[in-house]
Design goal:
It is a single chain. This protein is mostly beta strands. Helices cover 8% and strands 45% of the residues. It contains two helices and eleven strands; from the N terminus they run βββββββββααββ. Strand 4 (33-39) and strand 5 (46-51) form a beta hairpin. The longest helix is centred in the C-terminal third of the chain and has 6 residues, at 105-110.
Length: 132
């Protein structure tokens, strides 16, 4: 079965850290640009961070720059998102997505939600809750 599976979410206090993982099953990730997205209750899904096929190019939303770090290990077929200095406004369901056709990490992250639905694969999401 071809799928992405996220893990690593949870409840954390403000200022805390988490590491999210996005593992591919049934296909290899090295041919795909990968993005992390999040959706908070009542809000549209937004791009958080995206990474190129080689890992050499990354992009971040302004709201997470300096706090989140995206990385990938193609040998492990997994992409990671390290979340540091978490804030209550980071609370959301976090999703990863993979697309083989897109050529720009910036484009993948800023694509409107309606266009995001066209990405090749989406995970089921993992909940991140930041609360004291």
């Amino acid at each position: 079965q071809l799928q992405l599976v996220e893990s690593g979410g949870g409840l954390v206090q403000p200022g805390g850290s988490l590491r999210l993982s996005c593992a591919a099953s049934g296909f290899t990730l090295d041919g795909y640009v990968i993005g992390w997205f999040r959706q908070a209750p009542g809000k549209e899904r937004e791009g958080v961070s995206c990474i190129s096929r080689s890992g050499g190019s990354t992009d971040y939303a302004d709201s997470v720059k300096g706090r989140f770090t995206i990385s990938r290990d193609n040998a492990k077929n997994t992409v990671y998102l390290r979340l540091n200095s978490l804030k209550p406004e980071d609370t959301a369901v976090y999703y990863c997505a993979a697309d083989a056709s897109i050529t720009s990490v910036q484009a993948m992250c800023v694509m409107p939600p309606a266009w995001q639905r066209g990405y090749d694969y989406w995970g089921q999401g993992t909940q991140v809750t930041v609360s004291a």
